[in-house]
Amino acid sequence: MKIKILGAGSIGNHLAQASRRMGWSVVVIDNDPKALERMKNEIYPKRYGSWDASIQLFRAGDEPKGGFDIIAIGTPPDTHLKLALAAIEEEPKLLHIEKPLCTPDLAGVGEFIEAKEKHSRVMVTVGYDHVVSEAMEAVTDLIKKGLFGDILTIDVEFREHWRGFFAAHPWLSGPQDSYLGFWKRGGGAGGEHSHALHLWQYFANVLKWGPIVRAEAMFDMRNEKGALHDQLAIFNLETKKRKIGRVVQDVITLPVRKWARLQGDQGFIEWHCNGVPEGDLIRYQVKESAPVEKIFPKKRPDDFYREVLHYDKLLSGEIPPENSPLSFERGVEIMKILNKTYFQD
């Protein structure tokens, strides 16, 4: 399997290492030679122990084109669709676009959909990796068994101070130095932590609640050092079957809380991302029985390893493309929610 990764930043490093764990051939492209040097000499060896000399690095414009099974776009959100338009012309088997798919104004979405229809053999995904984690798979299996009766509501929170992001990106002095500080570029709490919206949508699909048809939101906006972003975003959601729930996303909470709870009339189940030092935790209770806790050991690179494992199953036919929670269509729906709520009167 051959993968080409656009972007030598944090995501590019994670995807490269996960792909090498799969034994794949990896090429990484960036338009900044300093980013390529930083990947080789700092980020990759610091995170994973040593540099992998089999990874090929190219400056944008000098990279090989064509013949790749997967092309992955791991650049800032406001560059995604422009790069995706060029990448899909190479006709990889799968095109991965990191989350969020695009900017909240949906610029370029229509044009890319036309290109996607033209290149219909290319599977297109959006990188909401948490939804394919081992713990989430266990949560899904338990929900499908109907242990908790009729699910009444879903709550999801991704509340994480972004100092962790900047610790992983020491070349940035703060949100004003990247897309993260600008909600219109796909940053802020709404875009960066849209994992939470995506998880809520995922559970609604599992439960056959129908699509999200109504979204109301409040944003706590901050204008600091030239950056303009939402530090807190709160969403109330309703599906076609009139099921409701809540999503909270922020960049101010410490310790981090990445959590989901499905409350049924016969019990509940919770997912806690990194809920214990060893990794993810799920907790559930059925009726009056004792609560059950299960730990799923992992480290951060394992999130991306699970993602490329999912891609391997998609390409082998083990998982039909229409069954993938990482589908392009689901990513578009998340951006439509952000579009509607950011630009609401």
Automatic annotation (TrEMBL):
Q: List the molecular function annotations (GO) for this entry.
A: nucleotide binding
Query: What name has this protein been given in UniProt?
Result: Gfo/Idh/MocA-like oxidoreductase N-terminal domain-containing protein
Q: Name one Pfam family in it.
A: GFO_IDH_MocA
Tell me the ranges covered by the Gfo/Idh/MocA-like oxidoreductase N-terminal domain, including all copies.
2-128
Do you know which InterPro entries this protein is assigned to?
Gfo/Idh/MocA-like_OxRdtase_N, Gfo/Idh/MocA_Oxidoreductase, NAD(P)-bd_dom_sf
